[in-house]
Amino acid sequence: MNPAPQPAAARVVTKWSVAGLVLLVPTVVVASIAVLTSHRGSLCLTYGEQCSTVPGEAL
Description:
The chain is mainly alpha-helical and 59 residues long.
């Protein structure tokens, strides 16, 4: 049993969704690098000082 072909609009949405997911990982990596290069981020990474806490509800 062959699935019915997708309409053109559905294919466009699928392609944009895949592109968004592919770009999500580099965005997170670049944002993490930006945070760690800041003064506060480097203190948190090196000494564990001035680290922000994220409340459980925000996660």
